[in-house]
Design brief:
Order of helices and strands of chain A: EEEEEEEEEEE
Oligomer: heterodimer
Radius of gyration of chain A: 14 Å
Number of helices of chain A: 0
Shape of chain B: globular
Structural class of chain A: mainly beta
Structural class of chain B: mainly beta
Order of helices and strands of chain B: EEEEEEEEEEEE
Strand content of chain A: over 45%
Largest sheet of chain B: 6 strands, mixed
Shape of chain A: globular
Distance between the termini of chain A: 32 Å
Radius of gyration of chain B: 14 Å
Number of strands of chain B: 12
Largest interface: A-B, 28 and 23 residues
Largest sheet of chain A: 7 strands, mixed
Distance between the termini of chain B: 38 Å
Helix content of chain B: under 10%
């Protein structure tokens, strides 16, 4: 596997369910990100991890709980979600700490989440 | 104020023609980077091109070029010789300073007609 992978690609869950989204990067990067993309809205940054440490939580509700066990894996644990949480959840990685150059983020294919 | 503004919700172009997608940005940081991403219907965000605030030349990557006008704070994407596979959402994004956070615009839906 190369690049950034995400599983599952599609998820339908009820408001009382608990589920987890998984992201894995094979690029040797040290920073990982969770984004939420709702219809007709810009991508919203949710969480940032640098060297497995959470460095940013963009006022995300506690029903979203991230976990970064190592620099290659990132999880998003979901519980008691609301219908408005239905969206495409994108994971990305980059090489943090570079002070010059593009340092672009590489994205996974996303998980399309539907909350009933 | 919005940091990234893409004023074109949708654009249409004929196959083999060139198209310009607009992006303006707002920052007080002298060091920043500008990115363009393509998002096909499959959902994956594909990096296209990057422009650094101190770069003297406009960035180019194959059929993609970035028309960087620093004084006007614009970073328009130019796609030459459009192909049907270019139909997708296109997002402009900015990184300020040395941080890794990207701020995205609302995107432009490009449709290439045969």
């Amino acid at each position: 596997e190369t690049g950034v992978t995400q599983t599952p690609r599609h998820l339908v869950m009820g408001m009382t369910n608990k589920k987890s989204l998984k992201c894995e990067q094979h690029l040797g990067h040290n920073a990982m990100y969770w984004y939420k993309q709702s219809a007709k809205k810009p991508l919203e940054l949710m969480f940032v991890y640098n060297f497995k440490e959470q460095t940013e939580n963009n006022s995300v509700p506690s029903r979203f709980s991230p976990e970064c066990p190592n620099s290659s894996h990132l999880f998003l644990h979901l519980h008691t979600l609301q219908p408005e949480d239905s969206a495409l959840y994108l994971c990305a990685s980059s090489q943090a700490g570079r002070t010059s150059g593009d340092n672009e983020q590489f994205f996974g294919p996303g998980t399309r989440l539907t909350v009933l | 104020a919005q940091k990234i503004t893409q004023t074109q919700p949708g654009m249409f172009v004929q196959e083999k023609e060139a198209v310009t997608l607009d992006c303006t940005y707002d920052t007080s940081d002298p060091s920043y980077g500008l990115f363009w991403y393509k998002q096909p219907s499959s959902g994956e965000m594909i990096f296209l091109i990057y422009q650094g605030s101190y770069d003297q030349q406009n960035a180019t990557e194959g059929r993609y070029s970035l028309n960087f006008q620093k004084a006007r704070k614009s970073a328009n994407l130019v796609i030459s010789a459009s192909q049907l596979g270019d139909s997708a959402m296109y997002f402009c994004a900015m990184r300020e300073g040395s941080g890794s956070r990207l701020t995205f615009g609302e995107g432009t839906q490009l449709t290439v007609n045969p």
